[in-house]
Amino acid sequence: MSPGAKQIFNADEIRRALVRIAHEIAERNEGVRDVVLIGIRRRGVPLAERIATALADFEGQQVPVGHLDITLYRDDLSRRSTTPRLQKTTIHTDITGRVVVLVDDVLYTGRTIRAALDALADLGRPGRIQLAVLVDRGHRELPIRADFVGKNVPTARDEQVEVRLHEVDNEPDTVLIVRQDM
How far apart are CA 49 and CA 172, in angstroms? Predict the structure, then answer.
């Protein structure tokens, strides 16, 4: 752990938050018959897969999981100093008329979610779109809110929320708040 970093979730707390989110998704949608989970690349994908596993455990029904790359939909592409790395969008089910639950690790300004909504519009017309995030850190720049939240964590603008997941980072699951050097 970085010096000055504060752990806000350990692996077991992440697991419990995702199981709770899964229960809330099933309850809000009266089951999961019409639900499609779509993880926003990178860390939203394993989170969506974990939620789908939890839903299958207690609902007895597999929920389709898709992976969404929003790179070309971002509004900050011209300001980035590095060339964006495109990844594949993979959604093996029609989302038209379905309840799409977008899944991401951290909700901050809302710009990532705006880009995801634009990307979804190119793929079909869901009946409803909901948002599930592991951490909501505040500081919204757009009028976007999550329907399902693992934890609300007030942060300062000079802090960063770092989510580390075994599937992506090849290290133990954890969520940290790290102060950025100014």
Answer: 17
* pLDDT number for residue 102: 98
Structural domains in the chain, sorted by start:
6-152+164-179 (3.40.50.2020)
Compute the average pLDDT of residues 27-49. Answer: 97
> β-strand 159-164 against 174-179: which pairing, if any?
antiparallel
Other C-beta atoms lying within 10 Å of the C-beta of residue 158: 10
Tens of pLDDT, residue by residue over 41-55, are: 999 999 999 999 999
Which regions of the chain does DSSP assign to beta strands (E)? Answer: 6-10, 35-40, 65-68, 99-107, 128-136, 148-152, 159-164, 174-179
Q: Summarize pLDDT for 78-109 with one digit per residue, the tens.
A: 555 565 666 678 898 999 999 999 999 999 99
Q: Are 150 and 134 in contact (CB under 8 A)?
A: yes
User: Phi/psi at 162 (nearest 5 deg)?
Assistant: -110, 115
- The tokens describing 24, both together, are 């809330």
